[in-house]
Design brief:
By secondary structure, the protein is an alpha/beta fold. It has six helices and 14 strands. The strands form four sheets. It has a seven-stranded mixed beta sheet with strand order 1-11-9-7-4-5-6, sandwiched between helices. Strands 8-10-12 form a three-stranded parallel beta sheet. Helix 2 packs across helix 3. It starts with a strand and ends with a helix.
Length: 210
């Protein structure tokens, strides 16, 4: 992808996102919608994966058929809300390697605190897609990408459901080489660091917690 920011404005994406924003949407409905919308976002984030042509025998005869080239890509979920996007992307790319980065936001400082990190090997040879529904302050996202780069990743994309201008600016300042793919750029952050108008806390809405 050539652009550093891609907003996926497909009508199905925008419709499902509106349903997710509604305060009356239940936990079960929210999870289902997040999985569905992640399928659609996955098409965009993988649009330009390289292909090779391999000899293939169909019932009607031989052909040179396209298939993905290179090492299997890696999906990295930024816990815990990232798992909602991860599951949907895995539906489409079940052979992907999977990693997890555990970060929580200190509510006083809005800075990320790391508590877990487990990543696949050979990241330097893989496309790495980091997933987290919300790009709010951008501090946790930037810290997660720091960890990926420290582990050797060179080709990284960041996939999220919602982004705030502040988070986009923070990520582009820290990691100008990492494209951001999102379904919406919302208005701003509030004083607590939540995206406005947003959809609330994605993790709480997904897991039914407060």
């Amino acid at each position: 992808m050539s652009d550093l920011l891609t907003v996926v404005d497909h009508p199905l994406v925008q419709h499902k996102l509106t349903l997710m924003r509604r305060v009356e949407t239940s936990t079960g409905q929210f999870r289902t919608l997040l999985r569905e919308i992640s399928h659609l976002l996955a098409y965009e984030v993988t649009r330009d994966l390289p292909l090779v042509h391999e000899p293939t025998q169909t019932p009607m005869g031989p052909m040179q058929a396209p298939q993905l080239a290179g090492k299997k890509l890696a999906l990295v979920s930024i816990l815990r809300a990232g798992n909602g996007l991860l599951d949907g992307v895995l539906d489409l790319i079940p052979s992907a390697r999977v990693g997890f980065v555990g970060l929580y936001r200190d509510e006083a400082t809005l800075q990320p605190v790391q508590y877990y990190c487990k990543l696949p090997d050979a990241l330097e040879e893989r496309l790495v897609i980091a997933v987290d529904p919300m790009l709010a302050t951008g501090n946790s996202s930037a810290a997660a990408v720091d960890l990926l780069k420290q582990a050797g990743a060179k080709n990284i994309r960041f996939l999220c459901l919602l982004a705030a201008p502040e988070g986009i600016a923070r990520m582009q300042d820290a990691h100008p080489d990492v494209p951001i793919i999102t379904a919406s750029v919302d208005e701003k952050l509030n004083e607590q660091g939540y995206i406005m108008p947003g959809l609330g806390d994605a993790g709480d809405r997904m897991f039914g917690t407060k």
